[in-house]
Amino acid sequence: MNRQRLRAANCSPLREASRVSSRDPSRAEDHLCHRRLAGETRAFTLVEIIVVIAIVTLLLGILLPALSSVRESARSLVCASNLRTVTTQFVFFAEGHAESGRGNSESLGTHRFRINDFQESLYRIDEFWDMPGQETSAVSGEAGVMLCPSLGAPITKRRGFPCGQAALGPVEDISIGLNMRLYRPAVAFKGNRVLAPATTAYVRTDIVDHSFVPLVIDVDGREALNRGLDPFYMAPPLPDVDEPYSDGRYWMPGSRHSRKVNVGFVGGHVLTSSNPESEEAWDWTYQASTGR
To answer: Which domain holds residue 21?
Structure first.
């Protein structure tokens, strides 16, 4: 009798189920289910849980940078698309075909215009104000071509002011600028090279024949603010040229796209570079004219 009890006590559920299954398979299955419900199911060990967590962590470490890179590539493409839109609108503006007209540049005649009027037409400020009855309006990345989606912050525009800090802000969130040499050219004055006043400068319509003149550029608004400058225009120094741009004060590109800058050209194309000031084929020497 004692020998039978010992054998029964040492009998595992699997062996017991095997004995039962030899007589009735359905009873064996019911028996095992009953034992599992009774709390005898095998649980994960601590080591197995740690291994699973380690594998998941490793996979996340591999996937997250890749996903971040994909998101940044998408933002860079949207930014390039915005700049391409600006270059297209520039051609319409230069040739006098813009729907909103040329604003104050209309007084200059058919073949000349001021780049600041084009800038204001992009933001829809000053004489191009498009929000009747409102004194201010927010511009987000979805509605403004002059915003880089990599920065993401909206800006506010104010009625009644020309392009500048009074009209647009906050300054540190400005992310797109125009070529400053088209706004304030360097001219000779009393034996020195100085920046001409913007009111005396104009761009000739035949600029559209100079395809590789940079027009619109990613700008670092925060750096401009640190320098006490407006970020709406900027230009790099030229090699072996002594002029107000030579010290690099007016050069603050926004290297937001994998440390590269998007640049849109008068010809309508958009290129990306980590050293946009040094690209040999890019015509940074072209500038606005002054006088009659």
So the answer is: 2-40
